[in-house]
Amino acid sequence: MTASFSDLFKPGLPAPAQKWIGWPAFNFVGGHNDEGSIPVDALRAAMDRVLLKEGPTLATYFLQSGPQEYLPLRSYLVDKLKAYSGINCNTDEILLTSGSLQALDLVNGLFLEAGDTVMVEESNYGGVFTKLNSLSINMITVSVDQDGMNMDDLEAKLADCEAKAIKPRFIYTIPTVHNPTGTIMTLERRLRLIEIAKSKQIPIFEDECYADLIWDGERPPALRGLDDSGLVVYVGSFSKCIAPALRVGFIVADWAVIAQILPMKGDAGSGALEQMLLAEFCPEHFDTHIVSLRKTLENKLDVLIAALEENFGTEAEFERPPGGIFLWVKLPEVVDTTRLASIAAESGVEVNPGRGWSLESDAGNWIRICFANPTHETLKQGVANLAQISRDEFGHPRHIANR
User: Fold this and answer.
1) Distance (Å, rounded) from C-alpha 276 to C-alpha 36?
2) How does DSSP classify residue 363?
3) Were 103 and a residue from 27, 97, 161, 166 both cysteine, which residue would form a disulfide, CB within 3.0 to 4.6 Å?
4) Quick one: CA dihedral 393, 398, 399, 403, positive or negative?
5) Backbone phi, psi, residue 331, to 5°
6) Phi, psi of 75 (to 5 degrees)
7) Which has the closest alpha carbon to 378: 31, 23, 21, 37?
8) Comparing C-alpha atoms, which of 52, 70, 50 is closest to residue 60?
9) How far apart are alpha carbons 51 and 60 in whole angstroms?
């Protein structure tokens, strides 16, 4: 007989997990990447080389690099961040983490306690909403358009906060390939955001997990690169540009911030082999790898868009993003995408309904479709199946492609 501890669990826990039964046939959720783009041979060779050179350091926590983690990878990031994001930093201003999710938790843990207020983009990474809700944080949303976070709306919301004697703990933003809209904040708005933050003395929490995946490689400097006040705390990741299963992220901030976060990390170090592998692989291969990956992902986006146009016609509205791994799609108002996602999942088609990714009032007829992992044929067939399911349930799209 198996013991039951359910009556001993503390109240307020999330719903229990279901046993995993494998990925759905048409998996359009999650930050997965393209299987064929994982540079397996180069990664194997890099792992062999680095283990021969550095293997004995596995005998110590932190690989003899200290609690900020593997120094060669931090050294690589100093160069990479300057070249790709316009950030000037040193190795003492970088902390490696177990993916960007741990980085988010650490930054939240540094700044927030129950009842605090933060500014967030109205449409946003669903995991941020979940994490802030779990901490009982008051979120004040700022609208997003094709140029990123709306600065007029931000200033109006901050003025309202000031009138109510509320000071937000930080402004959270995904300025470069925003999740889910795919937009890139303009340079003008970045400069204005920094000036607003300076005038109010409110930190900016900059999340740039998708910034390497811009099709043409052209982007404005990161907010952290434009800021001279130390108000920007920057988070990045290798998940989207190399492989999500490696679980390597990082925080870039002034030493005073890093020094305060270090005692909170408390895990005796993130995965060492992953850090060693990336430090060996990236200096030689990252630049060429990312160019190839961008082309592969852009081709998949084109396939997805063609499938949507064929199967949904004009009833699927979207803006073609300049990069990333997802497409933010608006369906007719009658289509409740929360219900659509639930019904579609029963047929092996999984999409993200809009209400998990946006606090806007009309989010109920939006979906987020992740296109990086599925093959071209899976994208085509999955969209066709989704269109048929939507038509059967909601009468839309009225047009269904011949197949």
Assistant:
1) 23
2) G
3) 97
4) positive
5) -105, 170
6) -65, -40
7) 23
8) 70
9) 14
Residue type, 335: V
- Residues 250 and 82: their CA atoms lie apart, in Å, by 15
Query: What confidence score (pLDDT) does residue 14 get?
Result: 84
pLDDT tens-digit map of 79-92: 999 999 999 999 99
Cα separation of 186 and 149, whole Å?
Answer: 9
Residue 149 CA to residue 121 CA, distance in Å, equals 6
Buried b (16+ CB within 10 A) or exposed e, 304-332: bbebbebbbeebbebeebbbbbbbbbbbb
**70 Cβ contact partners less than 8 Å away, ≥ 6 residues apart:** 62, 63, 96, 272, 275, 276, 279
pLDDT tens digits, 198-238:
999 999 999 999 999 999 999 999 999 999 999 999 999 99
Q: Which of 236, 231, 225 is nearest to 199 (CA)?
A: 231
- Give the tens place of pLDDT for each residue, 257-270: 999 999 999 999 99
Distance CA 209, CA 176 (A): 8
Instruction: Answer for the pair 225, 339: CB distance below 8 angstroms, yes or no.
Output: no
Distances (CA, A) of 96 to 43, 91, 172, 272, 308: 20, 10, 20, 10, 39
Chain centre distance of CA 206? 11
Helix (H, G, I), strand (E, B) or coil at 27: strand
Tell me if 385 sits within 8 A of 394, measured CB to CB: no
Rounded to whole angstroms, what are the CA distances from 235 to 144, 203, 250, 252, 293?
Answer: 20, 13, 6, 6, 21
- How wide is the angle at C-alpha 102 spanned by C-alphas 99 and 108, nearest 5°? 140
Query: Do 328 and 371 touch, CB atoms closer than 8 A?
Result: no
**Under 8 Å between Cβ of 182 and 125:** no
- Do the Cβ atoms of 176 and 185 come closer than 8 Å? yes
Please give the backbone phi and psi of residue 140, each rounded to the nearest 5 degrees, phi first: -105, 120
